[in-house]
From TrEMBL:
This is Urocanate hydratase. The gene is hutU. One of its GO terms (molecular function) is urocanate hydratase activity. Belongs to the urocanase family. Keywords: Cytoplasm, Histidine metabolism, Lyase, NAD.
Length: 670
């Protein structure tokens, strides 16, 4: 039985040789919402048939009844019975049974994504975003880990939306794993299609870094949110004025959105973050990511006024609906400097966003039992939400869409969020106003790493290495990128003090191609000298090149190509033959299935010359593929950055856009 086997033996076993006993659902777990009951009786039979193919025929009678009940109760077949007995967490790379160190590194990253301290709904294998899954079920997890334990250096594991298709012969230079998630045929890519095929067990939503095993807890989004909030305040405050005592009002304390209060603290403001799920809010408070919990509006009003008067730096979680907060702050004339929203509106009908004036539990009942009524109430709330924001922006609040599809879904609901031309939104995406021109166009994006030893001393050493590299680069960097360099030097020097680690010993900062390559080489050299253990490199898909997302990552592309996805596809293909240890490509991620195509990678540094060759080749392309596309879209900052890179890299030759005089275009008659 599992309980009598070592961790290594359980990994190598895969599907157990004996049928495990059923498991009760753990008390206190943050259960995923019940999904829409969308399958016909015949389709439910097919879903159970699909699930049973992982198991021997003699188990089918018992499991068929159990899986049918799961499907009826939850809308999905998660196979709770087959969850392993061992604690789900990232262990040291040496603890994993593997013939190939690269495979062991991937196992570590998989387990980190399912760690209850990291994952939003760990029992359902969902890491963040309400439905961002690592696997569809526990059989897929078990088989994948078994394959990785058997993998040799010239094999590649192919994963189809969580399903391990198998190990295939390849080469030592090929990726060890290739991941796809949710890649639907376009004519079968509507919301009900995704629900249906996910329920059938043939596809899944991998979010950005859940299904590609690169989620590092909320630290990743803490950094991006910190950079966004800092630069947001720079846009609205007089030079030299401090964010202390100024309000940043937002919503969402789940997986990614849970980082907002911590980011607000680092940026130095008052953060008020509403969350309807008491468990999510309490979890973030217990983890130290938010300072105070308040569930009463009068108490919130009094506390915020006190914080304003004292010019405090504090983060407050309000357990309730953010619409009520916007409305109450308007009524009590509390001025909001920055406003946003980071609820999971990519998933509006299945628990990503909750209607106002209805309890959390009642809303979850409606999702399952009265989905059309739930949808109507969500859309009514979105209109009310937009109206409240409009009243604040009329007073001077700077509101930005945080790429969670708030403006998109509010517009679909009939909310007053459209510009006068009826085409654009009246509020910018944060990428349009902040991260696009200030970061992505220059090549700055989320470079992250995980110390696979699990040793915090290794993380301390890599922090110091990264800070030294960035300070050396900054000494000769052009003025255009000095601010970004300094923000990230400050970030990495303060990272340990800010207690950002949840799960694996991981870190993130924003760097351009030069910074990423130099830091990675310095890590590889330190590994070679025996100063630290192996390091996994990666990034969020929310980056310069990896993602085509017209309302977020590529929202500042104005040549008409923001609805194309060539860049993301080239990114994942290009990374795969330049040295990535694993690559992934997803339909959906961040803003929802059907709204974005995004690609990611992971790379193991092991101190060898081969690793140095791979990091130089792959990281150069991974960043500059996106800068080239942004330059071709006539983005001035990207044009500057790609010319600078071509001067530094003789074999890089990029097609540059010729400028057209506005008078020529404006004089045309059509």
């Amino acid at each position: 039985m599992d309980t009598q086997m070592t961790f290594q033996a359980q990994i190598q076993q895969g599907i157990p040789s004996e049928l495990p006993a059923p498991k009760p659902y753990p008390e206190g777990a943050n259960r995923a919402p019940k999904r829409k009951d969308i399958l016909t009786p015949a389709e439910k039979q097919l879903a159970v048939r699909n699930a049973l193919r992982y198991f021997p025929a003699e188990w089918h009678q018992e499991l068929a009844v159990e899986f049918a009940k799961e499907l009826n109760d939850f809308g999905r077949i998660y196979m709770y019975r087959f969850k392993p007995e061992y604690a789900m967490k990232a262990r040291a790379i040496s603890d994993y049974p593997a013939k190939c160190e690269q495979a062991a590194a991937i196992m570590l990253m998989v387990d980190n994504n399912l760690d209850p301290a990291v994952a939003q709904h760990p029992e359902e294998l969902i890491t963040y975003g309400g439905n961002g899954a690592v696997f569809q079920n526990w059989a897929q997890y078990r088989l994948t880990m078994k394959y990785l334990s058997e993998m040799e250096a010239d094999q590649t594991l192919h994963l189809y939306s969580g399903h391990p298709m198998g190990l295939f012969p390849s080469s030592v230079d090929a990726p060890r794993v290739v991941v796809t998630n949710g890649m639907m045929i376009p004519n079968y890519s509507k919301p009900d299609d995704w629900e249906r095929f996910n329920a059938l067990g043939v596809t899944q939503y991998g979010q950005m870094t859940a299904g590609s095993f690169m989620y590092i807890g909320p630290q990743g989004i803490v950094h991006g949110t910190t950079i966004t909030v800092m630069n947001g305040f720079r846009k609205v405050l007089e030079k030299g004025d401090s964010p202390k005592g100024k309000i940043f009002l937002t919503a969402g304390l789940g997986g990614m959105s849970g980082a907002q209060p911590k980011a607000g603290n680092i940026a130095g403001c008052i953060t008020v973050c509403a969350e309807v799920n008491p468990k999510a809010a309490t979890k973030r408070h217990e983890q130290g990511w938010v300072d105070e919990l308040i569930d009463n509006m009068d108490a919130l009003i009094a506390r915020v006024k006190q914080a304003q008067a004292n010019e405090e730096v504090v983060s407050i979680a309000f357990i309730g609906n953010v619409v009520n907060v916007w409305e109450a702050f308007d009524e009590h004339d509390i001025f909001v400097h920055l406003g946003s929203d980071q609820t999971s509106l990519h998933n509006p009908w299945s628990g990503g966003y909750y209607p106002v004036d209805i309890s959390y539990d009642e809303s979850n009942r409606l999702i399952r039992e009265e989905p059309e009524l739930f949808k109507a109430k969500v859309q009514a709330t979105l209109k009310r939400h937009a109206d409240a924001i409009n009243r604040h922006t009329a007073k001077g609040t700077y509101f930005f869409d945080y790429g969670n599809a708030f403006l998109l879904e509010a517009s679909r609901a009939g909310g007053d969020v459209m510009a006068a031309n009826g085409i654009d939104f009246k509020y910018p995406s944060y990428v349009q106003d902040i991260l696009g021109p200030m970061c992505f166009d220059y090549g700055f994006g989320p470079f992250r790493w995980v110390c696979t030893s699990g040793n915090s001393a290794d993380l301390d050493r890599t922090d110091a290495i990264a800070a030294d590299v960035l300070e050396r680069i900054m000494a000769t960097a052009p003025e255009e990128i000095q601010q970004q360099m300094q923000d990230n030097i400050t970030w990495i020097k303060d990272a340990k003090e800010n207690k950002l680690v949840v799960g694996s010993q991981a870190r993130i900062l924003y760097a351009d191609a030069e910074g990423r390559m130099e830091i990675a080489k310095a890590f590889n050299d330190a590994i070679s000298r025996g100063e630290i253990g192996p390091v996994v490199l990666g990034r969020d898909h929310h980056d310069v090149s990896g993602t085509d997302s017209p309302f977020r990552e590529t929202s500042n592309i104005y040549d008409g190509s923001r609805f194309t996805a060539d860049m993301a596809i080239h990114n994942v293909i290009g990374d795969s033959f330049r040295g990535a240890t694993w690559v992934s490509i997803h339909n959906g991620g961040g803003v929802g299935w059907g709204e974005v195509i995004n690609g990611g990678f992971g790379m193991l540094l092991d101190g060898t010359e081969a690793a140095e060759r791979r990091l130089k080749s792959m990281l150069l392309f991974d960043v500059n593929n996106g800068i080239a596309r942004r330059s071709w879209a006539r983005n001035e900052e990207a044009n500057f950055a790609i010319k600078r890179e071509m001067a530094r890299t003789p074999k890089l030759k990029v097609t540059l856009a010729n400028r057209v005089d506005d008078d020529i275009i404006n004089g045309l008659e059509f």
